[in-house]
Amino acid sequence: MTVIKAGGAEPCGDGGGAYEAWRRQSLRARYAYGFVFFATNLLAWFVRDYGARALRGLHHVPVCGAGDSKCFQSGGVLRVSLGCFIFFWLMFASTFGTRKLHEARNSWHSGCWILKSLVYALSIGIPFIIPNIFIQLYGEIARLGAGIFLLLQLISMLHFISWCNKRWMPDPGSNQCGLFGLFLSTICYIASFAGIGVLYFLYVPNSSCEFNIFNITWTAILVKIIMAVSLHSKVNEGLLSSGIMSSYIVFLCWSALHSEPEAGKCHSHMKIAKDGDWATIVSFIIAICSIVMATFSTGIDTKSFQFRNDEVQLEEDTPYSYEIFHIVFAMGAMYFAMLFISWELNHPARKWSIDVGWASTWVKIINEWFAASIYIWRLISPVVLRNQFVNDEGFVPHRPTV
Questions:
Q1: DSSP letter (8 states) at residue 38
Q2: For residue 259, which of 363, 372, 370 has the smallest C-alpha distance?
Q3: DSSP letter at 232?
Q4: What residue intervals traverse the membrane (predicted)?
Q5: How far apart are alpha carbons 357 and 342 in whole angstroms?
Q6: What CA–CA distance (Å, rounded) separates 242 from 226?
Q7: Residues paired with residue 2 on neighbouring β-strands, in sequence order
Q8: What's the average model confidence in pLDDT over 191-216?
Q9: CB neighbour class for 283 (10 Å; exposed up to 12, middle 13-18, buried from 19)
Q10: What is the Cβ-side half-sphere exposure of residue 263, based on CA atoms within 13 angstroms?
Q11: For the CA atoms of the chain, what is the radius of gyration?
């Protein structure tokens, strides 16, 4: 039984049951927002590839005109992305500071879907009456927002690696074996080195592909550096976290090479160039699902972005940070816009293509190098800072005699 007051619903009697029901509703709401984001990705694709023919009514909108670039193709993607950004920004603003399940803002976050559907429809529609100059300005801002999203994704990835290491690898001083952690480590490293071999096979058909040879070789070097640093006696991080990170940067390398324009001579014969081919369609659908999963997994990992993670979770506390959840999805809206237009505001994307072009390739290469650098610094920073602290205190670190 609950009593409704001005500040929201407060439990009366079986308060624990009420809190548990609100908690389950809050957790289910995440999947609803994920579906909204997925549907928006599909809408952006439809407007880009088929909007000019299927949505002829938009040609009569003053800001669209008879052309295809302002409200369709790249312009249409930016307008849909802006609408998605507006919706999640409004959700961020309206749920900011929500900490208790009995607050009215918790009910707004977890329910009121009919009203939120109207807000979403208005958010998507408003950008189609905004002059094109403001859409181009949003596109420039979206590049920065997409970069911020990649940084948030990296932070979430590092948090996930730490969680895996704590869960499945024993402490250095214990006598536990950690067989499952060793098994996962082995699988990750086998996948990393096998993946590097596959990259050479697919993207280095001849010796003239110096760009691909350099990137694959440098990725292999980064994997070895990560492995060596993590096993160093002063670091002693173990193989699991470094194995997961190695697999991740190999994946980023593959993603970068896969984004190269297909006109190049360094692509495997396995690449399909036909529009509408079933393999291209399947690859496109997988790419969209990857975008949604990356955004969703980053959004639900709100503890990675909080300054304090040691606070005691009370029964009436919200299970995750609503404002962080919504701001991640808002940044994700900018990110999927950049992928659909390949990070170029006036990019004439081919149908059923996503994230293809030299701009996309370089974004992913830099992301790979940055991820590897951050992880290596994370490994060595305790040793470096500890030695620096000792020197500042006037002591000389102990050096073994030879």
A1: H
A2: 363
A3: S
A4: 31-48, 77-97, 118-138, 144-165, 177-203, 239-257, 278-300, 320-341
A5: 6
A6: 6
A7: 11
A8: 92
A9: middle
A10: 3
A11: 24
In angstroms, the CA 83 to CA 99 distance is: 27
CA triplet 251, 290, 94: central angle to 5 degrees?
125
CA contacts within 13 A on the Cβ side of 205: 9
Mean pLDDT of 120-127: 95
Question: What is the identity of the amino acid at 331?
Answer: M
366, 356 Cβ separation under 8 angstroms: no
Q: Looking at the DSSP assignment, which residues form a beta bridge with residue 317?
A: 100
Q: Which amino acid is at 226?
A: I
- State the pLDDT at residue 99: 87
Do residues 184 and 243 touch, judged by C-beta distance below 8 A?
yes
Residues 160, 298: Cα–Cα separation, whole Å: 10
Judge residue 55's burial from the number of C-beta atoms within 10 Å of its C-beta, 0-12 exposed, 13-18 middle, 19 or more buried: middle
Cα separation, 222 vs 50, in Å, equals: 42
* Distance of alpha carbon 354 from alpha carbon 283, whole angstroms: 9
388 vs 7: CA distance, rounded Å? 51
Q: Is the dihedral of CA 88, 94, 97, 98 positive or negative?
A: negative
**Helices marked H in 341-357:** none
Residue 100: beta bridge partners? 317
AA letter at 27: L
Of 316, 329, 321, 294, the residue nearest 305 (C-alpha): 321
Q: Which of 97-101, 110-114, 344-348, 383-387 is most confident?
A: 110-114
Residue with tokens 């309206």: 94
CA atoms within 13 A on the CB side of 13: 4
According to the model, what pLDDT value does residue 70 have? 78
pLDDT above 70 (res 4): no
For residues 184 and 40, give the distance between their C-alpha atoms in angstroms, rounded to a whole number.
36
> In one letter, which amino acid is 206?
N
Task: Tell me the two tokens of residue 145.
Answer: 């927002």
Quote the pLDDT of residue 285: 82
Q: What's the pLDDT band for 388 if we cut at 50, 70, 90?
A: low
Find, among 37, 39, 65, the residue nearest to 52 by Cα: 65
| Cα 47 to Cα 56: distance, rounded to the nearest angstrom | 11
